Every structure is written in structure tokens, then in C-alpha cells.
Amino acid sequence: MSRVLGCVIMVDFKLTHEEAFEPIDSLLKKWDIKYIRLIVVDLDGNPRAQLIPEYEMKFALTLGIGFDGSSIAGFRDVNESDLVAHPDPSTFLVPMWETPGIATMFC
Fold this sequence. Notes:
The chain is an alpha+beta fold. The protein has helices at 17-30, 57-63, and strands spanning 2-5, 8-11, 35-41, 47-53, 65-68, 82-85, 102-106.
């Protein structure tokens, strides 16, 4: 289930990651979304983003997306820098101010 809230489209927050894939996938197709901007907030409150293609969305929702934690100050040292970000399905949105074809999700 999804709803339109002014300038964004949001997915029902009660769904699990696996259950959220179908409604998100239908929104990706409906809005011709080619990329999803996954956002992680660092320890200073600054958003850090990674862009993934739409075909990786199911993988991202079920297993998460790996990223280098040492590239974000204060997260991890180089020796233990491999981290996994798990997108929050309730934060999926297609903001009107975003480049067409790109959606956003927080991890």
C-alpha cells in the first residue's frame, strides 16, 4: 500500500523489508525510477549517499548494501571498515525536487 503526500510518495511503514519490495517495485515502474539514492547519516548528522540501480532494490531490501565505513569520519578504521546499510522501506520517497528517475531511501 502506498500513498501520495503532496510532493512525495511513501510506502506503508508496517511492512517488513521483504513485504515492501512489491509495492516499492510497482512504484519504481510507475514513476520510471532508474536509481535509488540510499542515505546514511554520519555521526555529525551529515547525510552520506550511495546511488544504486533499481534492479538492486530487492537485494538491498533483503540483504542490505555494503559500504566502506572508513570513508565516513568516526565510523570505522580501515581494518574493520566493511559495513552493511539496510534501507528502511518506510522512508522510500520520490521527491518532486529530485532529478527525474531517482528515488530516495534512508538506511
